[in-house]
Amino acid sequence: MAAMPSKTPVSVLQELLSRRGVTPKYELVQIEGAIHEPIFRYRVFLSNELVATGTGRSKKDAKHAAAKNLLDVLTGKMTSEQANQSNGTPGAADITSQVVSPYDDKVMGNPIGWLQEMCMSRRWPPPSYEMEHEEGLPHERQFTIACQVLKFREIGTGKSKKLAKRMAAHKMWQTLQDMPMEGNNLPVVFFSEDDLVGKLSNIQGRYVGLKDSKISKLGSQQSHKVSQFHKTLKNSSGKNLSELQVKSHKIFTVYIFPNFFKPII
């Protein structure tokens, strides 16, 4: 009876990360060697700190090699530096090296799609793109496009609108990738000062309205149900509940109470 085929490094990495809701990104970085004996170099990354490269005689082999190296980094068998060391081949003088990109902007992969996917995974509004201006002679046009996500704005330039959009998306993706996040929720610093004041003013108005309103008291049966629900909620456990409790307490004590509630009370 034939043995069951073992899982490939790519499938193992995909399975491992899918449990965490993370998708690895693969890029074809270089093609080295003679035309009849090419050597492909792939790069896989999760973040700026978790990157690995791999080479192979085919794209498939190079991709598997990169995935294996990243798995070794995640399991502590290899450092990030070791996983990104150059795996050169003999006869370097006879080797031609070509950086692979379907565009002339030297930006690998699909930054527009990655940025869109990042916004969706973090439950943010999709990125918006706006044409800033174009200049230059008809045969040497230079386009400038702005990309905006929430309060962040990045500018990209290129010889075509497509290239400018890719560059803007690439810069935005890098900016957001390097920024520490607290789960899928936005830290308060993501809002401008005017937005924050407006939100807190709205909370203040609601609080005053509730304080001055005449709300009928709950009956004994209703009070008991509310009390039971509160006790059950306090005794419940879970990652999302814990994060919600910590963030709610932090926002209330640091931002809302000192600035608005103390003067009222």
UniProtKB/TrEMBL annotation:
Tree of life domain: Eukaryota
Keywords: RNA-binding
Occurrences of domain DRBM (ranges): 8-76, 110-178
One Pfam entry name: dsrm
One GO-annotated biological process of the protein: siRNA processing
InterPro entries membership: dsRBD_dom, RLC_Component
Classification via PROSITE patterns: DS_RBD
One Gene Ontology term of the molecular function aspect: siRNA binding
Transferase is among the record's keywords: no
A GO CC term attached to the entry: nucleus
Name this polypeptide is given: DRBM domain-containing protein
Phylogenetic classification of the source organism: Eukaryota, Metazoa, Ecdysozoa, Arthropoda, Hexapoda
